[in-house]
Write a structure and sequence with these properties.
With about 190 residues, this protein is α+β, with helices and mostly antiparallel strands. The protein starts with 10 loop residues before the first helix and ends in a 12-residue tail after the last strand.
């Protein structure tokens, strides 16, 4: 048992519909615009030219003023209606624009202050920064400036610590205080 299926392409019918519509448009609307004459229709291009291009002089009795600043501005659209307070508040107080509640807050194991889980604690960072500044001052006092620094590794020793065999040939900075718990010794 064989079946024959015939499929017609919709393109010839669509082309015919467009040709009929264009013909009705030409017969109905165009004679009123052109006075019964057929005009050659084709693609058109509209271009906004800058104001400094030469323009034809329409009236010679006008004063010879240079074009003003406002003549060269491309005026943009302005709102037709004022936005109401309700609309403005709804836009500004949109839940997507509000500050999100942070759920990754944790307690710092060193000092007990609150901090974000993936960020260094601000209080501990301030302590580290202050200690580093004091160590740099010790280095500056010992060597007299950044240009006199040796090209070897630096080891910081606190009260009660002695240099090991690995510290031979390294620059040793001694601090007269107990080692902080967060400053581990390598």
């Amino acid at each position: 048992m064989a079946a024959l299926v015939v499929v017609f392409s919709p393109l010839p019918r669509l082309r015919g519909l467009l040709q009929r519509c264009w013909g009705r448009l030409e017969r109905g609307l165009l004679p009123g615009f052109s006075g019964g004459q057929n005009l050659p229709w084709g693609p058109a291009l509209a271009v906004q030219a800058p104001a400094f291009l030469p323009q034809p002089v329409n009236d010679t009795s006008e004063s010879n003023e240079a074009p003003g600043l406002l003549d060269s501005i491309l005026w943009m659209a302005a709102p037709k209606k004022r936005r109401t307070i309700e609309v403005n508040r709804c836009r500004r107080r949109n839940p997507n624009k509000l500050i999100k509640v942070k759920r990754n807050i944790d307690v710092c194991p060193e000092c007990g202050n609150l901090k974000q889980k993936h960020v260094l604690c601000g209080y501990c960072y301030a302590k580290v920064k202050a200690e580093t500044r004091l160590i740099r001052m010790e280095i500056h006092k010992k060597e007299g400036g950044p240009f006199n620094a040796p090209t070897v590794e630096t080891v910081v020793l606190y009260d009660g610590e002695k240099p090991t065999e690995k510290d031979e040939g390294k620059r040793i900075i001694e601090r007269a205080r107990k080692r902080p718990s967060w400053f581990v010794q390598n």
